[in-house]
Amino acid sequence: MQFVQQLINGVTIGSFYALVALGYTMVYGVLKMINFAHGDLFMWGAYLGLTLFTLLGATALAGSAWMVVPAAIAVLLVVALAGLLVERVAYRPLRHAGRLAPILSALGVAFLLQSLARNIYGASWRTYPSGIALSGGVTLAPGLRVSAMQILALAAAALLMAALSLFVQRTRVGTAMRAVSIDPVAARLMGIDVDRIISVVFLIGPGLGGVAGLIVALYYGSFDFTLGWTFGLKAFIAAILGGIGNIPGAMLGGMLLGVVETLASGYISPQWKDVIAYAALIGILIARPTGLLGERLAAKV
Prior knowledge:
It is found in: Cell membrane. There is one protein chain. 71% of the residues lie in helices and 4% in strands. The chain contains 11 helices and 4 strands, in the order ααααβββααααβααα. The strands form 2 sheets. A two-stranded antiparallel sheet has the order 1-4. It is globular and about 60 Å long.
């Protein structure tokens, strides 16, 4: 039962990685660039959640787990708009400046967002008000238990990833996103507003990342301004592992990385989990440089 319990824990953590990895893989699929500021936008989701929970503490929802619903919606909208602002200010003017300039700009935005969080909220660890995180859980078998927060995290991650997949595959905007991913010049000649599609990508990716930041902070109970760097790096690895630019690959890579880390921590040592995870990444990339699901153009977004 311990192995199954570790698998459940690993899938839960992997779902967080997958949600953040989707932002990386969407931007890369359309612009062929890495949005290194994405992890710090994810971190701001946790801090905005702290502010919103404090404000909601003065309402009828005070001390209730229902506070999560309006807070999650507000975080999604605010972080999505912040992602759009980052694209307009830091990326769009450099879109035709080669590969190096946008990367340096992304790193600059990442450090800016991290410094703002540290200066505004402080460098110490922060915790959410008590009573928000769900308590209890479900015992599936002796020695096998799924907490209420794990159920919430898995359900939220599955819902958001399914909604994104349906959006990309079944809507006109999603079709336009896939067209821009394959050939932006041809897409523009076909009448697609490429700038608008890129804006949509920078709305959706950070928005999902912001909600993931809120859920992660609820799940772990405490966080600080380095949260974006820690999870952002792991999510970036997950995106590469699955095949960057590939949405199902980002999901698979996140889940796989979470399971490998958890099993390594449970059966070997928590100190070795990162070593084993990175070694697995190197091994997979040596065997398959494009990732587990590859970088097929038709699947990139």
